[in-house]
Amino acid sequence: MAREKDxxxxxxxxxxxxxxxxxxxxxxxxxxxxxxxxxxxxxxAGRGVAGSxxxxxxxxxxxxxxxxxxxxxxxxxxxxxxxxxxxxxxKIDLGTVNGIPFNCVAGVGFDGDVSAWPGTRSGW
Length: 124
Hints:
Helix content is 35%, strand content 15%. The chain is an alpha+beta fold. The chain has a two-stranded parallel sheet. α1 runs parallel beside α2. InterPro entries: ATP-NAD_kinase_N, Diacylglycerol_kinase_cat_dom, NAD/diacylglycerol_kinase_sf.
């Protein structure tokens, strides 16, 4: 499918690497970036394309997939990829906290602590 759509497959090691790759794609004038991953992956990619001419296609590959589910994206990877490559684009609103955009939910207090906790542990 990548050959048919003149696409490049880029694998990333972590969220920092993903952020660099998204920034590179936006800087190079990429108009559609399709990202496979979980809500955290989509959060990083969404920040990177926010305010640019690059649209974000989503292939949900996580356990919760809250963002993709809220948008009605098919949970099956092949179908989601096919839809992500379609020409239709839907604009969404982003929230911001301290100037940082977010695309799904924002938690404060206990909720924010619980969300941040797995990132402080190794071996997950």
